[in-house]
């Protein structure tokens, strides 16, 4: 089943009406679709990114969809930049209710070749950046009275993932931050949740992973229980849910949106053989009386 980003929304079009959202890394990729879907559901959006031209193009595209958008240039690694974005956003839109921490960096490198600076770079963008933007947003989110932070995480760190020691460590720390901030900021009516996307089509991450070609992709598809790659829309709709009143009692959770991919392991025996093998075993136990013995001991 193929799915596009232009699915009709299951939500009311005024779901986020009256709200203002900042999406870091919102000028491209998953972040852009999150900003777009929050906007299509009534929010005014502020998107941050490092490249001015990309920001300008993204704001023009959002404007084309009828969304009020402001692009703010800078780097989540710099706390001053984050503060400046909030200042500019509030000057234009008057408030801040939603923060989506989506800015991230990643590349595939075997750990023995990963430079200490490369490790540090990803930790700083993903983890420190999430804290910087959250910390800078706090005074405005506190004023909102009904605020939500969503940290875009990953499933890499559940167990371990090849060649991504840096990103796995960074996302594990992001998940920890989600829980800590949820614990401390619930008092201020700020809910803090995470989303862990699985394989999402049309992203830099998937392109890097499948530079190897179609065979690798076909093999990979078999490891996704729902049988398809995710779309940016799938992630954006999960953000819309977490930032809506439907999730008003949800905080400190990280919602996995991955088609079941992270849990995958090959079946020990083929599906067709299970029932036969299992029934065969049962009738054998009945014949020898073992099953009955077990029950009588309970
Ligand atoms: N493989 C190995 N090391 C890499 C690398 C790669 N593909 N890309 C960057 N690095 C290393 C650099 O060599 C450098 O380490 P060094 O000083 O020891 O040589 C360190 O990481 C910092 O790199 P630099 O390019 O100076 O950092 P940056 O801050 O300009 O950009 C990223 C870092 C991660 C943001 C950059 O790779 C990038 O823009 N990636 C695209 C965005 C992305 O990955 N999005 C996907 C999100 S899941």
UniProtKB/TrEMBL annotation:
InterPro entries listed in its UniProt record: DECR2-like, KR_dom, NAD(P)-bd_dom_sf, SDR_fam
EC number, UniProt record: 1.3.1.124
Molecular function in Gene Ontology: 2,4-dienoyl-CoA reductase (NADPH) activity
Keyword Phosphoprotein: no
Catalytic activity: a (2E,4E)-dienoyl-CoA + NADPH + H(+) = a 4,5-saturated-(3E)-enoyl-CoA + NADP(+); a (2E,4Z)-dienoyl-CoA + NADPH + H(+) = a 4,5-saturated-(3E)-enoyl-CoA + NADP(+)
Region (Disordered): 275-298
CDD domains reported in the protein's UniProt record: TER_DECR_SDR_a
Gene Ontology CC terms: peroxisome
Transmembrane regions: none
Keywords assigned: NADP, Oxidoreductase
Top EC category: oxidoreductase
Residue ranges with Basic and acidic residues bias: 281-298
Record has DNA damage as a keyword: no
GO biological process: fatty acid catabolic process
Superkingdom to which the source organism belongs: Eukaryota
Sequence ranges assigned to domain Ketoreductase in this UniProt record: 19-198
Official protein name in the record: 2,4-dienoyl-CoA reductase [(3E)-enoyl-CoA-producing]
Source organism of this protein record: Apatococcus lobatus
């Amino acid at each position: 089943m193929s799915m596009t980003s232009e699915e009709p929304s299951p939500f009311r079009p005024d779901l986020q009406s009256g709200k203002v959202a900042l999406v870091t890394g919102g000028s491209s990729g998953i972040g852009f679709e999150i900003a777009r879907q929050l906007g299509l559901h009534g929010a005014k959006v502020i998107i941050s990114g490092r490249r001015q031209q990309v920001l300008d193009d993204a704001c023009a595209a959002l404007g084309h969809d009828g969304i009020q958008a402001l692009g703010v240039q800078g780097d989540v690694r710099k706390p001053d930049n984050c503060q400046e974005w909030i200042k500019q956003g509030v000057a234009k839109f008057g408030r801040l209710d939603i923060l989506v921490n989506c800015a991230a960096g990643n590349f595939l490198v075997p750990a023995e070749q990963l430079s200490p600076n490369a490790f540090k770079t990803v930790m700083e963008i993903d983890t420190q950046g999430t804290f910087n933007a959250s910390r800078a947003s706090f005074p405005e989110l506190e004023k909102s009275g009904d605020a939500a932070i969503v940290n875009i995480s990953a499933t890499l760190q559940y167990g371990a993932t090849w060649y991504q020691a840096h990103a796995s460590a960074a996302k594990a720390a992001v998940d920890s931050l989600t829980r800590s901030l949820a614990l401390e900021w619930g008092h201020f009516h700020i809910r803090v949740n995470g989303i862990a996307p699985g394989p999402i089509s049309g992203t830099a991450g998937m392109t890097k992973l499948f530079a190897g070609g179609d065979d690798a992709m076909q093999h990979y598809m078999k490891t996704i229980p729902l049988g398809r790659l995710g779309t940016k829309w799938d992630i954006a709709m999960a953000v819309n849910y977490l930032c809506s009143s439907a999730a008003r009692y949800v905080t400190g959770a990280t919602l996995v949106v991955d088609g079941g991919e992270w849990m995958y392991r090959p079946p020990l025996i083929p599906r067709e053989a299970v029932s036969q093998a299992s029934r065969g075993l049962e009738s054998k136990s009945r014949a020898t009386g073992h099953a009955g013995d077990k029950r009588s001991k309970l």
